Each structure stands twice: as C-alpha cells, then as structure tokens.
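User: My collaborator sent over this chain with a note saying "see what the structure looks like." That's all I know about it. Can you take a look?
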Amino acid sequence: MGESITPPSLIDRAAMRLRKWPAIHRIGRWFRKRLWHSVVEGFWQFARHYFANNPNFGPPGKTFSVYQALRCGWPKLNGRVVLHDQGTPQVTGASLLVQCGLGQHLEQPWPILWSEHPDARLVSESLALVLPGKVLCLESAFNEKRWRLDPASRYLRLPPPTRLSGNWTSIVSNWVPNRGFPVYGHWLHDALPRLALLTEFPPDTKIIVPPDLRPYHRESLELLGVWNRCRPSPEAHLEVEHYFFSSPVSMMACYNPYALEYMQKALLPKGDPHFTGPKKFFLQRTTRRIAENTQEIADFFRGKGWGVVRDMDLTFAQTIKLFSEAEAFCSQLGSNMSNMLFCKPGCVVMHLVPDVFVDGCFDWIAEVCKLNYHTSVVPCGGRYSPRVTISIRHIEEFFASSGIPF
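Assistant: Without extra context I'll predict from the sequence alone. Here is the result:
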C-alpha cells in the first residue's frame, strides 16, 4: 500500500524544476523560506489583530488550550485527559531522528484528550475547532508551535456554515485535510488513531472524514467497523450541534506509541486470511521520489530470491497480512514504510534513505515495535539533486555492513 498525495502547487512544481540549477535553487529556497515566509506571516499576524473584533471577517486572533482547561478542572468544559505523556524515544547520534535536523524526537510530552462542544464551528480545509469569540483551539491546530501555520488561522472570510445535527467527531486536520486526498502515512498515524476515543462518545456519534478517499482509505474505515458512520465533508465551514473533539494523537513524524498500540490492536486481526505474500520482499515504490533505477533494484532482489511487491497493488487487508507475516523487507523512504507498524518483533527492516530528503519518522516506529532495523543514507547529490538513483553496489554494501544475509 503506497502513499497518496495532494497535487503539488505551482510554487512546488517550480521548485522541483529549479533543482537542475543548484545555485539558483538555493537562492529561491532562501527567498521562499526566509523573506517570503516572513512577509506572508506578517500579513496574517496583522489580519489577526486588525479584525480581532469582527465576527464575519478575518482569522482567529486568540487561542485556547483544551488540555490546560481540563488539567485545572475548568467546570465549563466536559472532557477527559486520557494520557498526559507518551514517553520519549531513545536516540543516538546515528539516529535519523537526530540527523535529519527536524527535532522529531523533541516533541514530547504529547497528551491524548477529548472534549465536548455544543454548536461548534469547524473551519478551513483542516476543520480546526474555533470557539465563540473567534478563539482557535490549539490542540486542533497541532499546538502552540504550529497553530499559526494552520489554514484555520489563515482565512479572511468563510462561506456560510453547513449545519450538522446530532453528535459528531472528526479525523480531518492540517495533515489530513479535506482538500486533496490523505497521504497514506498521515492517514495511518494522524487520522485513524483519533478514532480510539469513540468509546468515550455517545454510540450514535458520526465521523467527519475527508471527501476524496481512495479505496484503501474507505477499506480501513470498513475494517474498523465505522464506515457507515462517516460523512465525507468537503465544506470549509461546519456548524456542529454536538461536537466531540478527539485530539490529534501526535504527528506521523513524532514519537507516538499510543497510535501504534491502537492500530495494531484494531487492525492486525483484520488481515486478509486468504492472502499469502513473500516472507522476504522488496517493496517497490510507484509514487513520489521514485528511484530512477527502481526496476533494476527490483530485478536485483528477485535475483537474490526475494519477492517484489508494488506498493499500490494490494488491498489494505492484504497489506496488513503481508507485513504481519514478513521476516524481512527492504524499501526506500516513503509513506509505505509506515506499514512496518504491522510487523512482528524481530522482523528485519532495511531502510534506504536518499539524501535528497532525510527523515527520521520511521526510526521511532521500529523502536516501539522492536524491529531489527537498519538504515542507510544513499548519496544522490543532496537536497538539491533533481534525481534519485540507488546503486546496486550501495545496497550490497548496506546488507554486508549490517550483517544481514540476503
């Protein structure tokens, strides 16, 4: 099972083309990340303050923490803190969590909580919760560190609201928006685990989900037994009679054993009993950042007696079964690596990470799942390289240095 993507913007497509000229790309990257970012953020910060008292125009200018309100027992808020702290990953200097420079190991504690809100407003493509008085719920916008980047804090005017009667919860967020279709890894780690708290809500609570779902998105909801309660919701402004906010359980990139425990307990028994895949296999990517010689790599693994599985050829239930029975697999960095959460302890995982994009988001999954995990950063020319090529020699040296026989 592979990853789905939101179509890249015009700026993103231009940035990819400029990789052919590294010097120009560096200048463009600096302009976009520094100067342009500052100009845009300055505009929105001005709008937040200037339109703070205008109920019909401008983004929220204030924030509210449900977590802090529940901690102090604020009587006007019904809810519960399920978990205050998920712990922390154990890292070394060699860990990709450290090497990538994204600080993914520094995001704890990350509490798990829910709260009840009558006549709630959910806004923008992230459907973040906005309380009366244009006050944005921090937890629905991924906390103090990120709320200014959430679409719910960056709008000038909303369309008329769509009213939803009854009890509702939502798995839509900035990382699983209702524009485009959800990235596979974020769907597994950011969206579905929010359903773990359904038992805390009334039994007739329905679920707001993104509108553009692929078959495996729907299949995962069917396996969880909740599809008949879901409402694909393209609206950018909802008014919900009784809203039960289930907080994001962390982010895909950050330590989140709570999400893994829920997903394993809920989905491992749902693997397709009629499907049998190879016990050792190369997972061949077919979308985004594909190695140009991916077919050569696949043929190499076939020659070693390994199976080759294309990431988009299986159903979700077959994917669960494949990884739950795996003894070893190798793949390139991407959302399909998220499936290692279904692997049994001790499974050998060989992770090829092109230096075009280094990310440590799978290191902590391997740690929590107790996998025999090995990574190798593949030299492809760095972040400004326009191409990804993984040499067969590098793969052979990777296995040899790890002490893992083919």
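A starting point for your reply to your collaborator: Residues 2-7 have pLDDT under 50 and may be disordered.
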